[in-house]
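Folds abound. Consider this:
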Amino acid sequence: MKNNRYLNVILTILTVVLTLNLWVSTTRGPVWESEAYGQGIPDAGAQRKKIVDELKLLNQRTQKLTQLLQSGKVRVQVNANQDKD
């Protein structure tokens, strides 16, 4: 008898929780409908223009670096000192 009483209490609690869950989900609407869903369509043209502008800037910087390397003004010094343990 004691086991049946415990089982009935647990089942009653689960029934109440599931009923509340069902009530909340039906009154609020589906979970996938959120405010972030309808924020608008991104502007693909503006995104592409920004990418092109960044690529142009990257090309300018690369050209400056190439000119600096070709001018001979850059010196590279290599130290071959190795510490012996």
